[in-house]
Write a structure and sequence with these properties.
By secondary structure, the chain is an alpha/beta fold. It has helices at residues 22-28, 45-57, 77-94, 116-128, 146-151, 166-181, 207-220, 253-269, 281-290, 315-322, 336-345, 417-420, 441-444, and strands at 2-12, 29-31, 60-72, 99-104, 133-138, 154-157, 187-193, 224-230, 244-250, 296-300, 328-334, 350-355, 367-384, 387-399, 402-407, 431-434, 450-454. The strands form three sheets. It has an eight-stranded mixed beta sheet with strand order 12-13-14-15-11-16-10-17. Helix 2 crosses helix 6 (166-181). The longest helix is centred in the first third of the chain and has 18 residues, at 77-94. The protein is globular. The structure holds zinc ion.
Length: 491
């Protein structure tokens, strides 16, 4: 038995000014056939799990290219076509195969391709023909289109957000694939369109209980092979944007669609209750400055480079300066040009500097001031779980009682070590401002007296009712109050 595997993935925030070319893929993960490292990166778990199973079960795994670019904006057309064709050529060379098992993200948008995964899967199907199994693991922050459903046999999505379960879901994907090849099951996809878009952290209720429930259903009913919630991705302005419920049954499409509908309507009934409550920058800074015990961590949740933004918004910093904050540190503001100027000036210099808010509207204004350059670090890194996340050449500057870290490689604030490597003791500060939505929590909770979730400016299209979509559907919640009731017009 011969099985082909490959990975082609990124998450495209179509509103992001940071465009993606081949260098961006090479900077994040680009592994030619057979050269993928032993540890998977999010969407590449099908390769590492597949390698283990190939040895255990004795099939031949033919590896294609595995590549992933960190979330950002539109993918260059030639970059997408080049990577796609590279993998398709590898698949042609590998024929005949019994199955194609892919790692995709599901929210990639390239210049000229609104549904890149649909385009890619349709071409895979054309090459292998109608009878060969084609399946993929995907990120739930994606767009489940008719084109990709038609081209593939089944999909499995991560269930957790933060995505802690990408290896477990790759195990599910492979188990169903191998059971199908052995003739034990016949996977059929049933999809319900929830006609909504929302954000669904699974670290809190109601989504925690919902995920626990669908996992129980999978465990208890052998006819249910897999249940996925496709959260959707509100920063992707594409025609099929929105939340979907996917049930993969063992040849029971009627049962699948009934269950998908029941679960989808249950989610719809809880719309607007999933995300943690947020406050604006004025309230966040006032509360933090009034606190008697520190550090108070203010998460600038929507200027998160992990969601594809530049990470250079200054709205919170401007408010800190306006309210006269002292004993405060901000990590980080992305500004490679300002970092270069600081590097030229050197540690200890006092210079006139303009920094931040150069990438996009809704991120505030650049900050001007006489800053002191406290510490410079080339190729700075912070801890991220067991590994390290780079944030590039970085400058620790001081302005009016506030320590600010400027960085040159976009990175979300994963860990307090981002402050300590720049010479700031995070635990001794009264206020820490960071840029992250969710992933910061585990490490910052260990030192924080309090955590405030702040929605500052509009660096990210976080309010779908007001986002100027050009391609996304206008007849889903929250653009309309109840899209499942045809009596109700647009809001
Ligand atoms: Zn995701």
């Amino acid at each position: 038995m011969r099985i082909f595997t490959a990975v082609l993935a990124t998450e495209t925030n179509t509103f992001s000014p940071i465009c993606v070319d081949r260098r961006a893929f090479e900077a994040s993960l680009y592994a030619p056939p057979g050269e993928h490292p032993e540890t998977p990166t999010l969407c590449s778990a099908p390769i590492t799990v597949g390698r283990r199973l190939a040895v255990e079960k004795g099939f031949e795994l033919i590896e294609g290219t595995a590549t992933w670019a960190d979330p950002a904006g539109l993918v260059n057309r030639l970059t997408y076509e080049g990577l796609r064709d590279e993998i398709l050529d590898q698949l042609r060379a590998a024929l005949p195969v019994d199955a194609v098992v892919l790692g995709l993200h599901g929210a990639m948008v390239a210049d000229g391709y609104e549904d890149t995964e649909g385009d890619f899967l349709a071409r895979v199907r054309e090459i292998v023909g109608p009878d060969i199994l084609v399946c993929a693991e995907l990120d739930p922050h994606s767009h489940l289109t008719v084109k990709r459903r038609t081209a593939a046999d089944f999909f499995v999505y991560f269930k957790e957000f933060p995505h802690t379960d990408f290896v477990d879901r790759a195990e599910d994907l492979w188990r169903i694939a191998l059971d199908t090849l052995a003739g034990h099951v016949k996977p059929v996809m049933s999809v319900f369109d929830c006609r909504m878009i929302d954000v669904y952290p699974t670290s809190r209720d109601p989504m925690r209980s919902f995920v626990d429930k669908i996992m129980r259903m999978e465990a208890e009913d052998p006819e249910i092979l897999s249940i996925s919630v496709i959260h959707g991705f509100m920063a992707g302005d594409v025609p099929e944007m929105g939340t979907k419920l996917l049930v993969v049954t063992d040849g029971k499409p009627e049962k699948g669609i009934a269950l998908a509908r029941e679960l989808g309507l249950e989610l719809f009934a809880k719309r607007g209750t999933f995300i943690m409550p947020q406050i604006d920058e004025k309230q966040a800074v006032s509360l933090a400055l009034a606190a008697t015990v520190g550090p108070v961590v203010i998460a600038d949740v929507w200027d998160n480079p992990g969601g594809g933004t530049a990470g250079d918004a200054t709205v919170l910093l401007a408010e800190l300066l306006a309210q006269g904050a002292r004993d405060t540190a901000v990590g980080t503001i992305w500004d490679p040009m300002a970092v270069q100027i600081c590097m030229a000036a050197g540690e200890g210099a006092e210079i006139q500097l303009r920094f931040g808010a150069k990438s996009a509207p809704g991120t505030g204004n650049p900050i001007d001031g006489i800053v002191k350059i406290v510490k410079l670090v080339r190729n700075a890194e912070m801890r991220f779980g067991e590994s390290y996340a780079p944030f590039g050449d970085a400058a620790h500057i001081h302005l009016d009682g506030i320590d600010i870290i400027l960085n040159s490689t976009r990175a979300q604030s994963f860990d307090p070590s981002l402050f300590s490597v720049m010479g700031i003791n995070p635990a001794a500060k009264k206020v820490l401002v960071i840029k992250s939505t969710n992933h910061f929590y585990a490490s910052f909770a260990l030192i924080a007296a309090e955590i405030l979730y702040c929605s500052a400016g509009t660096p990210y299209p976080n309010n779908p009712a007001r986002t100027p979509y050009r391609r996304a559907p206008r007849d889903i919640w929250p653009m309309v109050e109840n899209p499942h009731n045809p009596e109700q017009g647009a809001a």
